[in-house]
Specification:
Layout: E1 28-31, E2 41-45, E3 51-53, E4 64-66, E5 69-70, H1 94-98, E6 99-103, H2 106-114, E7 124-126, H3 137-140, H4 143-152, E8 157-161, H5 170-179, E9 182-187, H6 193-199, H7 206-218, E10 223-230, H8 238-250, E11 255-260, H9 267-278, H10 283-289, H11 298-315, E12 318-319
Helix pairs in contact: 2-4, 4-5, 8-11
Length: 363
């Protein structure tokens, strides 16, 4: 595995070794002989930066991200973060699902970076590359420290997840929502359980993810649903879209935003192999639909978006606008354990000015 010269912009292998995200001497490899982690290898590293800039050409509605993990045991066959594993000389298939990089110092590093005079308190998105609430988080517990640091600095943030483990941190998320903008989105592309079992085998069932939406609604924190991905010829029929939007509406979601499957290099090969095994009759149709690149044709994307938005209106929820749902800050409240709602200004490390791979559809 290649660790040296792995920079925050992993495509730039010409950068000096001291610019690497972490060095080979900082890696500890572990396996755990428990059912939930059998077959998974964890590579514990001490990162040099944890706040990463989104590439300038990105379509994402945010500039900064935190990714405490690389690789994801959710094993979603379509995940376009798969390509990032090739920068480690790992394959984008099985290795992405089972070789997980864990940035064990993420909470302490984040607290230092948030305290830097150079940090201006910009919005930080999480779960946009791989899921920060994947199975590994149950053991490593990085997110409580990350969330308390963001809360204590009143730094706005958003989370996109397929994981129900986020409910463990509901209290600190509620505290953070009192002092800053907090956006929570859950990814549920479809409610077909048979399709879920083969295409997203490591994730909680769609209905369990919608339980997360219900739990946040009960706390008064708006939670949107990213309806992603909509899979052509597998989850895009009118009756299927209706069933999914109806379930999303019943969960109390504040918004729904559809996103059609896109197939970038790394994910494309893995997904097409899965398709050939499970739905061989669809291979030629996919080849035609995605003949011009990673994205489905505009006409197809617009059709799906229009259908979902019409259904959302029918069921009483609106489309999402501008990315994650947001909760306005209650300026009269202070989070427990904070002296004030303004960021600290003590000098420390600065965030990385170069990008990590970023995606909006998990995971």
């Amino acid at each position: 595995m290649r660790w040296e010269n792995l920079t925050a912009d992993s495509r730039d292998h010409s950068r000096a070794a001291d610019a690497a995200l972490f060095g080979a001497d900082a890696v500890t490899t572990r396996t755990f002989d428990t059912p939930e982690f059998r077959g998974i290898t964890f590579h514990e590293v001490r990162a040099r930066s944890i706040i990463n800039r989104v590439p300038g050409a990105s379509r994402m509605p945010f500039e900064w991200t935190i990714n405490p993990y690389r690789g994801c045991s959710h094993a979603c066959v379509y995940c376009f973060a798969r390509k990032s594993h090739s920068y480690l000389d790992l394959d984008t298939g099985i290795d992405f699902d089972s070789q997980i990089v864990v940035k064990v110092n993420a909470p302490e590093l984040l607290r230092r970076q948030l305290g830097s005079r150079r940090w201006q308190g910009e919005h930080i998105a999480m779960g946009t590359n791989v899921d920060c609430y994947q199975r590994a988080e149950g053991r490593y517990r990085l997110m409580p420290g990350i969330l308390t640091a963001l809360r204590d600095h009143a730094n706005p943030f958003s989370i996109l997840t397929k994981g129900t483990l986020i409910l463990r941190d509901l209290d600190v998320l509620t505290e953070a929502a009192r002092v800053t903008d907090v956006g929570i989105s859950v990814s549920v592309g479809f409610t077909d359980t048979e399709l879920w079992r083969t295409v997203e085998p490591g994730t909680p069932a769609p209905e369990r993810r919608l339980d997360v939406v219900r739990a946040f609604a009960e706390r008064g924190i708006g939670c949107g649903v990213l309806m992603a991905p909509v899979l052509p010829f597998l989850s895009d029929q009118p009756a299927q879209l209706r069933a999914t939007v109806r379930a999303i509406a019943a969960s109390g979601a504040t918004s729904v935003m559809p996103l059609v499957l896109h197939l970038r290099p790394g994910a494309r090969e893995w997904y097409m192999a899965w398709l050939a095994h499970h739905h061989p009759h669809l291979v030629r149709r996919y080849e035609r639909l995605y003949a011009d690149g990673a994205y489905a044709p505009k006409w197809y994307q617009r059709r799906i978006t229009r259908q979902v938005h019409d259904l959302a209106q029918e069921y009483g929820i609106g489309p999402a606008h501008g990315g994650m749902p947001r909760r306005p800050r209650d300026s009269g409240s202070a989070a427990p354990g904070t002296a004030s709602a303004t960021p600290s200004a003590t000098p420390s490390a600065t965030p990385s000015a170069t990008p990590e791979p970023t995606q909006l559809s998990l995971i």
